[in-house]
């Protein structure tokens, strides 16, 4: 990406002095001008052409064009190559120019925005592009932040201000930022004009959540953190005004640092296509060599005798040199085996598939008003080849709408509703919820069913009060009171919001906060706590703490966090309480609830003072500041007293169990990677039908050491191998066998599941054990990884991607999922960057964990955690259930269409080009072409382009309902059966076969044929018209046979292309064009004369029949003897339609004499048995496994048994075939 500032040497540190432009200019910092565009009017043409000719295909055709300009080499006019090349370059250039125009427009809009800059003691209006490092800027409510600013002061007390960071991280909830106390009083312009503090901080980087710096002012040092910064791209909210010091400007801002180039993903078909094109080029060279040798031999043996009639060119002095020139001539003539239109057509088809996803109303969420979005055009067909899905749990499988459900306080559990006998009441038997009418500030939407907890609060139980006091103090929630008594909480996570709301309803109402205080209404009494420190949450600490001083002066630390972290930091005196609380935690987790442990610790004044000093020193450290702070936090968060635990319910999304069941039937393995407790994850696994009671065994790996983990994995493998179900019915495709990890484990037929904890996974991912873990996990039907970090999620994805050579898909909704789904970062359906509200860039999140490679396909869920995952994804929608449609319908169709397109494309071009090869043996290897040069130019861009595009965009083998009903239809894509090297060679063989008949049948007929007037029919022009017409008709009939789903567009394009061919043919051979261009169109009337001969039409008909009949016969026999599953589904559909028609007819001719029957059950015998057997029921998705195992048509199962014994089939061989 081009930027306004020139490239400078990397900075080691940034120094910025307020109100001193002269001092700051000596560092040559970047201005605040941004430039995301790549071109201007002068540079567009050369730069764009330079970029396009970096593509190998374009360079290749440019080379051919240069060859055609050499008279001694070229036997074709230059326009036969330049017309397609210019067309392709022009289309790409127009797209690039349009994209860049919008970038220019966005840049100008942003750079010309106005901001108030403090210059010479007064506020002046300046354009954003003129703002410099060290300037002090005034921002007003709802304004965008112009640069990365150090917050100096604001209109709010204590230097607070509120910002929205949706353009940075996708989160729409407000965040609070605070000026350091020493500058928070600088709200007056005169005092700000005198401010000369200097900021020394880290150099520009892309870490959105981190900032480390120091302010030097008045001979003192003050630590600066991310909480003191306003980043470019944020919007000031609910704050009348604020002042900030520019630290980073323009390209140095974190927003622009995150808009760098990214590596684009490519599909397996892309990689295979590139390989095949190289092979074709090698084949082209071989044909050129053969024909060149033939030319040299012919000229030596025959041509030398006819020098008087066919003299050599002046530059040719030998037969060898004639052969050398002939080689280049044939390279030009035969270059159409690698057509330039291939790559353009592929992109057009992918673009169409992307729009189909965007327009799919069945993937539109009416509740959130969000459609599905294909954010890339390059991966659509790979959606039809997915074998592994890696899913987050919270917000992806669940709704991420948290409800306070249960809690454990001082060893007693609350939340269970008991009936009169003391048993747990069922949902329908629950009494009225707890009445919170005593609390005027209660949230009316909050429901709780156990009245004993409220009674304990009202009775003044100290443990219960301390429990809810912790919940009301230990958080980062912001409160807003729009009307008297109407509180609105804005939380960074739904968990925090649910906990603070629970405390609010039970009488501990969080009312407001300042940078130094928190005000809580405790049972109606306002209590203000002095906030001494916040020890914030992160993915490594997995806990947060606050240190407060109560009105009595006592200092206490309150902490909440994950049980695995907090239970290790408790004081030994809480062992008895720990045992009861642990039992409750296990019980809650077993019910699928999300748990947190609460604890506190009293601190004396002296210890806190010393600790605060160490914290200050750590925060001022220039190097390793975060590690030093973590160490200081670790010190104080020890020997805590256990209070209890909370349990929050996060319900499953609608349609999750059905989606997982359907994807499992499609032989897609689903791995859940979650940060939740093992028991919670397992319970969710059962709820969403990943885990079932019918499974042979669920292995749980919880080892804490390398040896323990290895032993547990070994025992799991032994049990799978010892199972009586372990039979070798595995399968794989021969092309995948060498690349895939082979293991006898994958031949087991029993259903197993693996659950592994985060600490065990850390050992399992080590280099010497990762293959053992992978073998064990891949033999299981379901895998659940608990307590995993974002980095471990990416490592698991990379492990499978690296060793299994399978297509992987990762799906998530939060920032912690970005590392496994991040991708091309914001490329839209047209391949263009979507313009953001500030500038036309999207964030690529390079600050996420480095190293591991993301999944092949990333899917983002637009849920409750912002849109970080969406911004980093390839595809996005709002609910997990849409994944089944994305894969089984759009993905399968995209793969099918692309494969059929490529097969036909290579076929038609070989059929077209190879005719020149055969003709070479009959024209003295003179590089004479068979076809007219205009036909060669228009064949790929006019006569055959639109029909194959229509097939590639619209074709279907079965309707979308059948794709969902029969998920086994998805498996050919996983096995890469529809387009591989074998299918490629079949297409090439068919093309060569067609070219042989296309040339030799007319050649044989014309050798003896005569016209109606008795003259010889065999002339070059008539032969060329006959062969060209036969070719166009044959390839049109062939695409008609290949088309499985006919639309009006298909009909129009196929028959329209034929009509266009004849119209152009007659026009080029007309008197009118000859009169205007006599040197270009010399064959006047040739088409009319040739096509008027019955012999010619008989020849064309014979050629078409002989070319097409073997294809028809082969497909008929294949359909009868060994049909594909899609063939069987189509047949079933036809049978159903006929049965419905017959049923309607029968209903019309029913008896009219009497409607009463003699005996109520005497109509027909056997219906009871039929209904009980289920044979008359509609074929559902869940019945498909038995349907696909019919011995006569289960081509997939045959492939599995024949070609591999190393992997397993999800449907056993003992299933009975379904009979129609």
UniProtKB/TrEMBL annotation:
The residues listed in the UniProt record as binding Mg(2+), with positions renumbered to this chain, are 392, 394, 813, 817
Q: Which GO terms describe its molecular function?
A: ATP binding; flippase activity; magnesium ion binding; phospholipid transporter activity
Q: Which domain of life is it from?
A: Eukaryota
Q: Which family does it belong to?
A: Belongs to the cation transport ATPase (P-type) (TC 3.A.3) family. Type IV subfamily.
Q: Which Gene3D superfamilies did the record assign?
A: Calcium-transporting ATPase, cytoplasmic domain N, Calcium-transporting ATPase, cytoplasmic transduction domain A, HAD superfamily/HAD-like
Its GO CC terms?
plasma membrane; trans-Golgi network
Name the SUPFAM superfamilies for this protein: Calcium ATPase, transduction domain A, Calcium ATPase, transmembrane domain M, HAD-like, Metal cation-transporting ATPase, ATP-binding domain N
**Name of the protein in its database record:** Phospholipid-transporting ATPase
Spans annotated as Disordered? 1192-1220
Q: Which locations, inside or outside the cell, does it occupy? A: Endomembrane system; Membrane
Give the reaction(s) catalysed: ATP + H2O + phospholipidSide 1 = ADP + phosphate + phospholipidSide 2
Q: Which organism is it from?
A: Leptonychotes weddellii (Weddell seal)
Establish whether keyword Metal-binding is in the entry. Answer: yes
């Amino acid at each position: 990406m081009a930027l306004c500032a020139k490239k400078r040497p990397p900075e080691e540190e940034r120094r910025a002095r307020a109100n001193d432009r002269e001092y700051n200019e000596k560092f040559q910092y970047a201005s605040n001008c941004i430039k995301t565009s790549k071109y201007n009017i002068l540079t567009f043409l050369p730069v764009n052409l330079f970029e396009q000719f970096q593509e190998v295909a374009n360079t290749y055709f440019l080379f051919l064009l240069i060859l055609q300009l050499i008279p001694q080499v070229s036997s074709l006019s230059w326009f036969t190559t330049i017309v397609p090349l210019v067309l392709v370059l022009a289309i790409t250039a127009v797209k690039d120019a349009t994209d860049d125009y919008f970038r220019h427009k966005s840049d100008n809009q942003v750079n010309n925005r106005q901001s108030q800059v403090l210059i010479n003691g007064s506020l002046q209006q300046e354009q954003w592009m003129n703002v410099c490092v060290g300037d002090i800027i005034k921002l007003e409510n709802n304004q965008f932040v112009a640069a990365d600013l150090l917050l100096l002061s604001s209109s709010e007390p204590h230097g607070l201000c509120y910002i929205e960071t949706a353009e940075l991280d996708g989160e729409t909830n407000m965040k609070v930022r605070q000026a350091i106390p020493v500058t928070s009083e600088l709200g007056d312009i005169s005092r700000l004009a005198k401010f000369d503090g200097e900021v020394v901080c880290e150099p520009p980087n892309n870490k959105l959540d981190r900032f480390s710096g120091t302010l030097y002012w008045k001979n003192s040092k003050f630590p600066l953190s991310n909480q003191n910064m306003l980043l470019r791209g944020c919007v000031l909210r609910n704050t009348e005004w604020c002042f900030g010091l520019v630290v980073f400007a323009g390209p140095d801002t974190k927003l622009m640092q995150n808009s760098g180039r990214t590596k684009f993903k490519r599909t397996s078909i892309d990689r295979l296509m590139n390989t095949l094109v190289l092979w074709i080029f090698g084949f082209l060279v071989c044909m050129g060599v053969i024909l060149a040798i033939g030319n040299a031999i012919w000229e030596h043996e025959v041509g030398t005798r006819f020098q008087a009639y066919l003299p050599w060119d002046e530059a040719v002095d030998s037969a060898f040199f004639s052969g050398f020139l002939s080689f280049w001539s044939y390279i030009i003539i035969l270059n159409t085996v690698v057509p330039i239109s291939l790559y353009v057509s592929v992109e057009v088809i992918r673009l169409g598939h992307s729009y189909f996803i965007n327009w799919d109303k069945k993937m539109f969420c009416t509740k959130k008003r969000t459609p599905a979005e294909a954010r890339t055009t390059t991966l659509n067909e790979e959606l039809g080849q997915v074998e592994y899905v890696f899913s987050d749990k919270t917000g992806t499988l669940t709704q991420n709408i948290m409800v306070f459900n249960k809690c454990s306080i001082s060893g007693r559990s609350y939340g269970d509703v008991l009936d009169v006998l003391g048993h747990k009441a069922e949902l329908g038997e629950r009494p009225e919820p707890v009445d919170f009418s005593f609390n005027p500030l209660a949230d009316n939407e909050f429901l709780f069913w156990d009245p004993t907890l409220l009674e304990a609060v009202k009775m003044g139980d100290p443990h219960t009060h301390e429990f809810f006091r912790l919940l009301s103090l230990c958080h980062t929630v912001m409160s807003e009171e729009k009307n008297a008594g109407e509180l609105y909480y804005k939380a960074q996570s739904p968990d925090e919001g649910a906990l603070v709301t629970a405390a609010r309803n039970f009488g501990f109402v969080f009312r407001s906060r300042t940078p130094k205080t928190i005000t809580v209404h405790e049972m109606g009494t306002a209590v203000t706590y002095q906030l001494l420190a916040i020890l914030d949450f992160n993915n490594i600490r997995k806990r947060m703490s606050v240190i407060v001083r109560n009105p009595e002066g006592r200092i206490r630390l309150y902490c909440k966090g994950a049980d695995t972290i907090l239970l290790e930091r408790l004081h030994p005196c809480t062992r008895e309480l720990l045992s009861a609380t642990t039992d409750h935690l296990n019980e809650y987790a077993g019910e699928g609830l999300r748990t947190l442990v609460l604890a506190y610790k009293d601190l004396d004044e002296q210890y806190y003072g010393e600790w605060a000093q160490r914290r200050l020193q750590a925060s001022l450290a220039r190097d390793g500041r975060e590690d030093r702070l973590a160490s200081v936090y670790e010190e104080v968060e020890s020997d805590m007293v256990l209070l209890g635990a909370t349990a929050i319910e996060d319900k499953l999304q609608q349609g999750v169990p059905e989606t997982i069941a359907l994807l499992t039937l499609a032989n897609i393995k689903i791995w859940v990677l979650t940060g939740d407790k093992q028991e919670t994850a397992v319970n969710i696994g059962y709820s969403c039908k990943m885990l079932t009671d019918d499974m042979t065994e669920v292995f749980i790996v919880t080892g804490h050491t390398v040896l323990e983990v290895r032993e547990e994995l070994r025992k799991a493998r032994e049990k799978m191998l010892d199972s009586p179900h372990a039979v070798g019915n595995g399968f794989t495709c021969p092309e995948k066998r060498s690349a895939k990890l082979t293991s006898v484990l994958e031949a087991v037929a029993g259903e197993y599941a693996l659950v592994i904890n985060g600490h065990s996974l850390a050992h399992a991912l080590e280099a010497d054990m990762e293959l053992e873990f992978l073998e064990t996990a891949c033999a299981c039907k379901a895998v659940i990884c608990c307590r995993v970090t974002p980095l471990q999620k990416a490592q698991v994805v990379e492990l499978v991607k690296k060793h299994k050579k399978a297509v992987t898909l990762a799906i998530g909704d939060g920032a912690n999922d970005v590392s496994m789904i991040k991708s091309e970062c914001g490329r839209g359906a047209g391949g263009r960057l979507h313009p953001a509200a500030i500038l036309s860039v999207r964030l690529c999140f390079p600050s996420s964990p480095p190293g591991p490679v993301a999944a092949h396909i990333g899917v983002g869920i637009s849920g409750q955690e912002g849109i970080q995952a969406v911004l980093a994804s390839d595809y996005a929608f709002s609910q997990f259930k849409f994944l089944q449609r994305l894969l089984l319908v759009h993905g399968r169709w995209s793969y099918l269409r692309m494969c059929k397109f490529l097969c036909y494309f290579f076929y038609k071009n070989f059929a077209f080009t190879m005719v020149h090869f055969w003709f070479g043996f009959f024209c003295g290897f003179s590089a004479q072409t068979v076809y007219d040069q205009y036909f060669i130019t228009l064949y790929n861009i006019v006569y055959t382009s639109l029909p194959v595009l229509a097939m590639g965009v619209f074709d279907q083998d079965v309707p979308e309902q059948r794709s969902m009903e029969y998920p086994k239809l998805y498996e050919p894509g996983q096995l890469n059966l529809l387009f591989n090297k074998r299918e490629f060679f079949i297409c090439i063989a068919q093309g060569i076969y067609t070219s042989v008949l296309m040339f030799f049948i007319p050649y044989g007929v014309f050798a003896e044929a005569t016209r109606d007037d008795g003259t010889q029919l065999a002339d070059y022009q008539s032969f060329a018209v006959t062969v060209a017409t036969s070719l166009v008709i044959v390839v049109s009939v062939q695409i008609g046979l290949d088309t499985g789903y006919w639309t009006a567009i298909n009909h129009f394009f196929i028959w329209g292309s034929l009509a266009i061919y004849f119209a152009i043919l007659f026009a080029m051979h007309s008197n009118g064009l000859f009169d205007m261009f006599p040197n270009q169109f010399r064959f006047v009337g040739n088409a009319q004369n040739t096509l008027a001969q019955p012999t010619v039409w008989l020849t064309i008909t014979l050629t078409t029949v002989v070319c097409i009949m073997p294809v028809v016969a082969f497909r008929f026999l294949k359909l009868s003897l060994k049909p594909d599953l899609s063939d069987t589904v189509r047949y079933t559909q036809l049978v159903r339609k006929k049965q419905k028609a017959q049923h309607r007819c029968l209903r019309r001719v029913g008896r009219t004499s009497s409607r009463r029957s003699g005996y109520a059950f005497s109509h027909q015998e056997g219906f009871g048995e039929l209904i009980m057997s289920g044979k008359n029921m509609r074929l559902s998705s869940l019945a498909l496994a038995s349907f696909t195992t019919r011995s006569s048509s289960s081509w997939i199962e045959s492939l599995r048994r024949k070609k591999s014994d190393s992997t397993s089939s999800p449907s056993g061989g003992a299933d009975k075939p379904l009979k129609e």
